[in-house]
Every structure is written in structure tokens, then in C-alpha cells.
């Protein structure tokens, strides 16, 4: 199971995840084929607990971001 599918499952479905993120279910479904954009990963983590690092196609160094956020 990939990270987005895991987040959808934890949220209780595509529609519920979309509602939590303030987007339409169609947007979440599109992420399955086009990839989940980096800007939404922190919000997915807040809503579901699925860490940003679990999303394979992310171009963000989340370990660095986390280390600078604590400073």
C-alpha cells in the first residue's frame, strides 16, 4: 500500500480525506495517477499521521525541514 492509499484508508475514504484537506474527492483521486503535490503533504500528515517522508515522489528533504522547524 502506498502512502496516499494509506492516508485515504486512515481518513475513512477519498471523500473524507478530501474534506479534511479542503479539496474535492476528484483532486485526491487525481493524485493517485499524477502524484501527490508536496504542498499538501504536511496537511495529509496532520490529518492522518502518514508522514511526509512516506510519499516516494516528494522532492522535499523532509528531515531537513523538520530539523529547521525546531530551531
Description:
The protein has 71 residues and is mainly α. The chain has a single domain, classed as lambda repressor-like DNA-binding domains (434 Repressor (Amino-terminal Domain), Orthogonal Bundle). 61% of the residues lie in helices and 0% in strands. It has 5 helices and no strands. The chain has helices spanning 3-11, 14-21, 25-34, 41-48, 62-69. Helix 1 (3-11) crosses helix 4 and helix 2 crosses helix 3. It is globular and about 35 Å long. The mean pLDDT is 94.
Stretches where pLDDT falls below 50 for ≥5 residues? none
How would you classify the helix and strand content by structural class?
mainly alpha
CATH topology: 434 Repressor (Amino-terminal Domain)
Instruction: Report the end-to-end length measured between terminal Cα atoms.
Output: 34 Å
What is the β-strand count?
0
CATH architectural name: Orthogonal Bundle
Give helix % range.
Answer: 55-70%
Mean of residue pLDDT values: 94
The major β-sheet equals: none
CATH class descriptor name: Mainly Alpha
Q: Can you tell me the overall shape? A: globular
Q: Give the DSSP E fraction (strand runs of 2 or more residues).
A: under 5%
CATH homology group? lambda repressor-like DNA-binding domains
Number of helices: 5
How many individual domains? 1
- SSE string: HHHHH
Q: Over all CA atoms, what is the radius of gyration?
A: 12 Å
Amino acid at each position: 500500500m502506498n502512502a496516499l492509499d494509506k492516508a485515504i484508508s486512515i481518513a475513512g475514504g477519498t471523500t473524507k480525506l478530501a474534506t479534511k484537506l479542503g479539496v474535492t474527492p476528484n483532486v485526491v483521486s487525481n493524485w493517485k495517477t499524477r502524484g501527490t503535490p508536496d504542498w499538501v503533504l504536511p496537511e495529509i500528515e496532520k490529518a492522518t499521521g502518514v508522514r511526509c517522508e512516506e510519499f516516494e515522489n516528494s522532492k522535499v528533504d523532509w528531515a531537513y525541514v523538520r530539523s529547521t522547524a525546531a530551531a
